[in-house]
From TrEMBL, chain A:
Protein's recorded name: SKP1-like protein
Role description: Involved in ubiquitination and subsequent proteasomal degradation of target proteins. Together with CUL1, RBX1 and a F-box protein, it forms a SCF E3 ubiquitin ligase complex. The functional specificity of this complex depends on the type of F-box protein. In the SCF complex, it serves as an adapter that links the F-box protein to CUL1.
Highest taxon of the lineage: Eukaryota
Oligomer and partners: Part of a SCF (SKP1-cullin-F-box) protein ligase complex.
Location of the SKP1 component POZ domain: 16-75
Organism from which the protein derives: Eleusine coracana subsp. coracana
Xref: InterPro entries: SKP1 (IPR016897), SKP1-like (IPR001232), SKP1-like_dim_sf (IPR036296), SKP1/BTB/POZ_sf (IPR011333), Skp1_comp_dimer (IPR016072), Skp1_comp_POZ (IPR016073)
TrEMBL record, chain B:
Sequence ranges assigned to domain F-box in this UniProt record: 13-52
Domain of life: Eukaryota
Gene that produces this protein: ga11122
Full protein name: F-box domain-containing protein
Taxonomic lineage from the root: Eukaryota, Viridiplantae, Streptophyta, Embryophyta, Tracheophyta
One of the Pfam families matching this protein, by short name: F-box
Amino acid sequence: MAAPESGDGNNGAARMVTLISSDNTRFEVEAAAASLSQTLQLTILDGGGGGGDGIPLPNVDSATLSKVLEYCIKHAPAAANGGAPNATAVDRAELERFDNEFVNIDQSVLYSLIMAAHNLEIEGLQSLVAKKVADMIKGKSPMEIRRTLGFPDPTPEEQAEMNAHMLEYGWAYE
Amino acid sequence: MAPPPPPPPELMEDAVGEILLRLPPDDPALLLRASLVCKPWRRLLTDPAFLRRYHADYIVWDPITGDEQHVPDADIPQSYFNAAVMCAAGAGCDHRDCHGGPFLVALVGTDEHEWVTYASLYSSESGEWCEPSELEFDYDLYVDGALFGFERPERDNPRDFDGTALIPAGDGLTFAGLTPYSRLHLWSLQMTGDPDQVVEWTSYRVIELDTLLPSADIRSYHQSLIGVAPGPD
């Protein structure tokens, strides 16, 4: 584990930390961006992740981590402003545009992001990806929802149970 | 197009609540349909704790017109909270003809773990809450022209409000919070009538209620602020 450091001793440059993905790729990123993760924040506050040490993230692969960091880097300045009373409407619109673009991705990537955001406790990202999936579900029947999300077809037991509940609600199945 | 990949099984356990929480509440049938998707979803969607979180939005009701408007949940902690609704027409409005018109909702909430208090403002015109701002506490107090300093209480956190109130005042709003040692903190918020306005709370007064309450008997009881009536300055 990373040994505590007193700081990088360089007040001019932003402090950097290193994150190591499950497939052993190292990512160097500003501490402020990585600290959007509640999970990493304490380690970073304790001085971890600097120098040659790096913080290992055994549950996040490099493709997912690079995507996660793209989000963190973009959102770090606004977060550093403490939610930014001085953020302009233009800044907010730009972040919103970024967010919309950001979740316009393959479903498997989306799932990886959900898990990573959950494990790393990055609140904004959790909310963003969860909203995306919720939008995919809107207006769909239970079967359509299963297909959209890639669930396997229901087993006969599951099917029977669904039918029973449906009768209870008095609705057509699809 | 290839069928979508199956979600990882952990997704169902950990993050699905976050997803289902974000189903739009304006379509109740959607929750029922979602509850038919599979057993874990059904379990979650019938869990009272989940339903409490899901319905955590606000309704602004106009008793004159019967109009109901849904206001989304604000992204601030609400272990303790207080809110006020105001006409958004600004200082010039005499409130005779503004029913059903644009409104503002001010919300002040405290996090029970960190005891930090935040304020945010919702505009019905933009349909959004502004970025929350943190209310700072000042340990100096300025009462009736005299400045007092006092030591930061060691054990009791002054952010631990024993009740809060939001009071429309003139063109703005006053937030009152009672803290331990019977200190009533007052902040003010000036409205500009501009929907893009930023919430800026200014601490303007701290009143030591112990010096005002009539008898020692009353002072020995636990005190809690439940409301404030605006009066002449």
